[in-house]
Request: fold
Amino acid sequence: MTAIAAPRRRDVAWIAHSGLAAWVIVAVLVVGLTIHDPSGFWTASNIANVLTACVVLGLVALGQNIVVLAGGIDLAVGSTATLSGLLAAILIDGYPIRTAPVVIAMLALGALIGVVHGLLIARVKLPPFVVTLATFYLLQGLAFIITTQPKGQITTALSNFALDRSGPIPHALLVLLVALGVVALLLRRTAWGRNVYAVGGDAEAARSNGVPVARTLVLAYVVCGVLAAAAGVMLASRATIGSPTAGQGLELSAIAVVVIGGTSLLGGRGTLLGTLGGVVLLALIDTSFTLLQIDATLNDLIRGIVILAAAAIFVTRSDR
Reply:
């Protein structure tokens, strides 16, 4: 007699595992903002502000998600973005002919930082927290050595791309969508992507099954560094100038997004869908302050409450 499989439960734990938890909170927040001010929330300019806020955070969060899936963490993504954006503005300095070479050089800088992280963690066996905390301070210190004031100039074409929009859709969103597509392809369609989940789940078991653990970790940090550098270039493009403080706080926001999205900080489990939902959620929170006329000084307080509530409701259940 053939056993009938039990139907898959659609409970809170399943929502957390699937990455839908953040989108549930986004839906609730959208309904609340719509009820409060339907004409203001659904204007093209407000939607564009939300989507624009997703670009930089989304790029950094995608990289952080990969590293966390592999069982690591990168506390230096904000400093990487800061240094890349600052150097991009200084090196371009308003000359269009320098744009492409400098942008490529900044992505290469992000990759180099990722290689250093990966080798120190995978080969030297230093803890990811210690390595990336050290480079967090190192890269931020380098930015302040270069300058303590805004400096350099991004070209008009690059700043226009970062700031212009077609209706409610900012042109810069294309960068995030391309990055999302590439990361999704790497994780779902390549052996390296499968190895990331295996290493994050149990590195020793993965190694015993022939998974190149060190190479997997190094590449994970390389992708994270490249995405953080891209975020820095976008930050500088939006500001039209380089700043030694532009990326401060991005590392904590990226970790918060990963947590809200249901990715396990122990590695091996998580979805891009959940991380993207976390990005949209934080972008909604940030942009809704103007709409609701709330004092901006309460931003961190409310963000902390939302993250804690999401963790209490969804994240703890995803570990069951």
